[in-house]
Amino acid sequence: KVLIDVPRSDLAEELAQSETKIQVLQDTLQQVLDRREEERQSRQLLELYLEALKTEDSILSKVAEPQAAPRKEMDVVDTGTSSTDASATTALRDQVLSALKEKPVPELCLDSQDLELVLKEDAAALASALGWDKQKAGALQEACEQELSKRLQQVQALHSLRSTSKGKQTLP
Length: 172
Prior knowledge:
Layout lengths: L1 H4 L2 H8 L3 H61 L4 H6 L4 H9 L9 H9 L2 H8 L3 H36 L3
Keywords: Coiled coil
Protein name: DFFA factor
InterPro entries: DFF-C, DNA_fragmentation_mid_dom
């Protein structure tokens, strides 16, 4: 930073170089400083994002906990009486089914595990559980697949950024 702030003519005289070379040197140093600042801001943004994800996960887990116990009890009761067709539709929790029915863009409201469950579900069984036609259920599954794919790409990008960032931190 000091070398950038020194007047070009003084630095050229001190280093016995032309002012043109000093200009190139100062420009290069400024680019390095700019890049470091961008990296710092990117790291801060990623940290905030990860913190927000942790907060969201803890909130969602607290919301899901009270519902978990009744579901287990219901599953135990249903095990003896359910048919194979009914077990396929109960693979999706009531919470997921209600989100799929009520939300205008449900794939954005579901976590990745629920998106995977929706994708694994048979389109006909999903349509039956939601009271929709098979085409609408298929479109929903396609939207869920695209969202899951996008999330996986984001995770891969974060891992790539993290490994790149770790690699740069070890350099002197």
